[in-house]
Design goal:
The protein is an alpha/beta fold. The protein has 7 helices and 8 strands, in the order ααβαβαβαβαββββα. It has 2 domains: about 30 residues, no CATH class; about 170 residues, 3-Layer(aba) Sandwich (Rossmann fold). It is about 45% helix and about 20% strand. The longest helix is centred in the N-terminal third of the chain and has 26 residues. The radius of gyration is 27 Å and the shape is globular. The termini are far apart. The chain binds flavin mononucleotide. Flavin mononucleotide binds next to helix 3 and strand 4.
Length: about 230
């Protein structure tokens, strides 16, 4: 056997192995734990990425109208509730500042406003109608919920909440309200939305009213996670 020929065959075989393995090694470098193969311990964030795939992160847009701050406080509580759900990322914005990109990126939208003459304030109605009518946002299968404040006890808050939900249903969204459970855990129920009475009979926003907003945020974020699974 020619020793030179054997030598060149061996070198060629090695080159073939090296060329085939290089791309595979390159592939292994991708993914959240890749660096750990090269001596780095995985960080908490690496592990979180592994446990929770990217598609389970949900964006919850909380869009509100507020002249004197009551509805804004409720909106903040909605965001707090959404944060209770792992993977939910709330974005709090005045309704007039919401962009088409915000709406399209949202997996869930929670709308809130004051009650004016037992209805949605005209300025807010114009904005949300334009989202659909002029901006042509596709709301299909986004999760939705609503909240309202009103000075009166029976001044139309619930009508406002239902009107906001009707807007969502009409735009092909899937809507829900906050969940409650009695102390024994026997009874479980939902309400239409969250609300607060802010007028002279019961000024400001009470703890239970804030709690209704927190529950709403949590419920809608949960629903968005389920819809994205
Ligand atoms: C023009 C106007 C009309 C209102 N109409 C009603 C009403 O019909 N029913 C009610 O309960 N409150 C009514 N209110 C009270 C507001 O809904 C209430 O103060 C609300 O909490 C204000 O929210 P904001 O602080 O976020 O602006 C009205 C207030 C204004 C300024």
């Amino acid at each position: 056997m020619n020793p030179n020929k054997t030598m060149s065959t061996t070198i060629r075989a090695w080159l073939l192995v090296v060329c085939c393995c290089l791309p595979v090694a390159g592939c292994q470098q991708q993914g959240p734990l890749a660096d750990s193969q090269y001596g780095r311990q995985p960080t908490r964030q690496d592990l979180a990425d592994v446990v929770r795939p990217k598609n389970q992160t949900v964006d919850v847009l909380i869009a509100y109208d507020s002249m004197t701050g009551n509805t804004e406080r409720m909106a903040q509580a909605v965001a707090q509730g959404a944060r209770r759900v792992p993977g939910a990322v709330p974005l709090l914005k005045k309704v007039s500042e919401v962009t088409k990109e915000d709406l399209e990126a949202a997996d869930a939208i929670v709308l809130g406003c004051p009650t004016y003459y037992a209805n949605i304030p005209g300025r807010m109605k114009i904005v949300i109608d334009d989202w659909s009518w002029k901006m042509k946002v596709d709301f299909t299968d986004k999760a939705g919920g609503a909240f309202a404040t009103g000075g009166g006890q029976m001044g139309g808050k619930e009508h406002v909440v239902i009107s906001l939900l009707l807007f969502m249903i009409n735009n092909r969204m899937i809507v829900a309200g906050p969940l409650y459970q009695d102390e024994e855990g026997d009874d479980l129920w939902a309400e239409t939305g969250a609300g607060a009475m802010t007028g002279p009979i019961d000024m400001g926003i009470g703890v239970k009213e804030l709690d209704s907003a927190t529950r709403l945020g949590e419920r809608i974020a949960h629903l968005a996670v389920k819809l994205k699974e």
